[in-house]
User: Fold UDP-galactose transporter from Ceratodon purpureus.
Amino acid sequence: MAYWACSVSNAIGPACGMLALKYISYPAQVLAKSSKMIPVMLIGALVYGVHYSIQEYLCTFMVAGGVSVFAMKSSGTPGKIASPNAPLGYTLCLLNLGLDGFTNATQDALTARYPKVNAWHLMMGMNLWGTAYIALFMFLAPGGGGYDAVGFCLKHPDAAWDILLFCLCGAVGQNFIFLTISRFGALTNTTITTTRKFVSILVSSIWNGNPLSAQQWGGVAMVFVGLSYQIWCKYQKKSSGGSEATAELSSPTRSKSGSKRRKH
Assistant:
């Protein structure tokens, strides 16, 4: 039962994101979703009481700001970003961001509350509840389209095999996503996915011979400075934690040796 709330948000959030593409362009959606890490932190802090350091907030805003600067320029003219139905598209993007933030923060809370929960527990619980919700909507709600989808697959078996292959690839990929969440936290996973989208756009621009402007190079610098600073902070934290543990282990030895000298 612990998975039901985040499974609902996980089922509805991506649907809002895909529906938003009917009203805004893909670069505009990337621009809107470049701040995905921010709602993860805000919901984690406000709802679940997670304490983030100032360095983590700074790194998050640098990465989100860099991706925004880069995507804003690559989106081209304002006409590609704005359209008559753009407000609806951006509203759906905001819903997607909020629901994704709730999903990721709740997954963090589950792993913290139940230490025995591992990546595959999360994966099974999320997928079982999500499958139940989506199946109820598709086959019971008016216009759900479940019966039409089944009829289409029966009529076009080649498409059904493609869908099955797509689902298998998604299932394999989910293993890495949930392993990252369970071991490093949802914020790290969100940082990776946001950076991956940014790198894909960057590589595509360079590969296709599209020169980057000064603004875009500034966005690239912001992203990599933010990521490098985040890695350095985690290394410093790990190093200080290791030195403290070594000191604690060595102090009882010193006290015991001192007591032995007193006895002699």
Q: What stands out?
A: Residues 77-82, 253-264 have pLDDT under 50 and may be disordered. Residues 14 and 96 are 6 Å apart (CA to CA). The two ends are 63 Å apart (CA to CA). The chain has eleven helices and no strands.
